[in-house]
Amino acid sequence: MRLAKYLAHAGLASRRRAEEIIAEGRVSVDGETVRDPARDVDERRDVRVDGRRLVPPPDREVFMLHKPAGVVSTARDTHGRPTVVDIVPARRRLYPVGRLDADTTGLILLTDDGELAHRLTHPSFEVDKTYLATVAGAPVREVALRRLRDGVELEDGRTAPARVDRVRPDTLAITIHEGRKRQVRRMCAAVGHPVLALCRVRLGPLELGELAEGAVRALTPEEIAALSRAGAGGRHGPGSSRSVPRRPSRPARPGDGAGPAPPR
Ligand code: URA
Question: Which DSSP category does 206 fall into?
């Protein structure tokens, strides 16, 4: 693997930044300073950055699913409804990262790395999440927008300030970093605009983009690294809200061969 890619895989930085770090002469391979980002390395090499040994990138996969409505985001459902794990074919056991309501569509992550899933689900992983909410009672007026932005009193306390943009008379783009149960639905209902449809379009540095409903794709190593950095820094950390370039892949329907590998 190219040295710059190896550093990016290990979560050090984006590939471009890794190339700069290499050019600065800060990277050594088996004791030799290397300024060539294309140098071929693997986990048997002693790769160091500023003299500190780099832990080899773990062999893990993270998938982005555009969750359809009616699918639950737990690993198992007592009511027999389909789960996100059922509809993503994978070689290894997958863990959903966080939750979306059964009737919410949009971006949800699944990984075969239970520890990563746990870390990304922890309340300290406060990355921004953006939802598109189609609401009743349109048009949504400025006074309702202001209340949503300032924080709404709910039964479990006041919500933190949110970014709220009216993208159509009946559609709001709402960005929050909290993750309370049915939070967006309760916020909108509290200002007189119950949610008719809800879709998560962004999670930290990741965007749903053109991924079709029901389709799945593997995250690139750069996206995984950016996600880990966003979580490690909390919502104030570097990269928590910035987007990373997506692999220009065609969206894949589960099972059509373009998504993750089928079960072994
Ligand atoms: N807020 C909600 O109300 N529902 C979700 O699924 C996610 C955020």
Answer: E
Q: Which tokens in the block code for residue 143?
A: 């006074």
In the residue annotation, 36 being an active-site residue is answered as: no
Q: What is the three-class DSSP state of 174?
A: strand
CA of 239 to the centre of ligand 1 (A): 23
H helix intervals, 100-243? 114-121, 142-150, 183-190, 221-232
Cβ atoms of 221 and 8 within 8 Å: the answer is yes
Task: Say which of 86, 101, 128, 170 is annotated catalytic.
Answer: 101
- The C-alpha atoms of residue 164 and residue 148 are separated, in whole angstroms, by 7
Mean pLDDT by 10 residues, the chain (264 residues): 86 86 96 96 89 78 95 88 87 88 97 83 84 97 98 97 97 95 97 98 96 93 82 45 45 38 34
Report which of 204, 243, 254, 225 is spatially closest to residue 89, judged by C-alpha positions: 254
Tokens linked to 107: 């971006």
- Which atom belonging to ligand 1 lies closest to the Cα atom of 195? 3
pTM value > 0.85: no
Is the sign of the CA dihedral 61, 62, 64, 68 positive or negative? positive
